[in-house]
Design brief:
13 helices; 0% strand; mainly alpha; globular; disordered N terminus
């Protein structure tokens, strides 16, 4: 008689189940860690030499924000996995697609919360308070505020302001109000541009707050916020030590405006803007404008530090 059952030896030869770490890592959104840039960029623009002497506290502050933001991302994906399955892009996320189980994501969430708490204990009390405020506001956002029109984008923008504020304090520098206004309005504009893309491409089924928006309204509000952001940027640079503040304003202004124009073109003409990070990385003109903007600003600030 032919044996139909597999022998123990043949079973032992089967390859073991491999741990799928890539989908789990994707929950941390490493591509979005660039959003932690304001932690370092704000003090670096204000006083490059002082920033160099405060590398350790700035590094810890940045690490705390990266851990905190990843914690919020995992929490948000856990709560939104059903809604994400209705979105043409978000349905590919690890939880929504089923590549990561709820149990594994919950374990990762606990680990990230512990790491974030440990990093907070290493920071100065005021800086730790700012990072803690970021976590509290974003958890509140995930639980409720994301469904409130205009409040949702304001909370997202506030997160970037808190990053810039924490970095400035960690470097021992005075807080520049015009810089914070610039960061806030620029991030409101990017968040509204993302909402516009979702409304125009997907409709309001994916996000309940979208029902309170319209494409013309979002077009107007995005432009208003970008204008205010540009004005805040000019006011901030102009207030830096003379003559470098004035030089930086004149030299970088064309690149700043070009980057803004290109973003508006992508959002309103090309129907892009769904992911500003992806737009910045993949779009050639956007990369060129942002790169020249950063390079010209760095050159002027470096000259001022020598």
């Amino acid at each position: 008689m032919v044996q139909t059952l597999e022998s123990p030896a043949s079973t032992a030869l089967e390859p073991p189940v491999r741990f799928r770490w890539r989908p789990l890592l994707s929950l941390l959104r490493p591509r979005h860690w660039i959003k932690g840039a304001p932690v370092v960029a704000a003090p670096l623009i204000t006083a490059p030499l002082i920033t160099a002497t405060h590398a350790a506290p700035l590094g810890l502050t940045l690490a705390a924000f990266l851990a905190a933001s990843s914690t919020v991302y995992v929490l948000n994906d856990l709560r939104d996995r059903e809604a994400d399955r209705l979105h043409p892009v978000k349905r590919l996320r690890a939880l929504a697609s089923g590549r990561v189980t709820v149990r594994a994501a919950t374990f990762l969430l606990v680990v990230l919360a512990v790491v974030t708490t440990a990093l907070l204990t290493l920071l100065p009390l005021v800086v730790a308070g700012v990072v803690g405020a970021y976590v509290a506001v974003n958890v509140w956002y995930s639980l409720a505020l994301k469904h409130q029109p205009l409040v949702d984008v304001s909370v997202v923008a506030a997160g970037f302001v808190l990053r810039a504020l924490a970095g400035t304090i960690a470097a021992g520098l005075p807080v520049g109000p015009f810089l914070l206004i610039c960061v806030y309005c620029a991030c409101v504009a990017l968040s509204l541009g993302k909402r516009r893309h979702e409304l125009a491409v997907v409709g309001d089924a994916h996000r309940s707050a979208l029902s309170a928006y319209s494409v013309p309204f979002l077009d107007h509000v995005v432009v208003v916020n970008l204008v205010v952001a540009l004005a805040g940027y000019v006011a901030f640079l102009w207030g830096l030590a003379s003559p470098y503040g004035a030089i930086a304003t004149v030299v970088t202004f064309p690149f700043a405006t070009f980057t803004i124009y290109r973003y508006l073109q992508m959002v309103m003409v090309d129907r892009s803007g769904g992911d500003p990070v992806v737009d910045l990385v993949r779009d050639g003109p956007m990369r060129a404008g942002a790169g020249l903007w950063a390079a010209s600003l760095a050159a002027v600030l470096l000259a001022s530090a020598l």
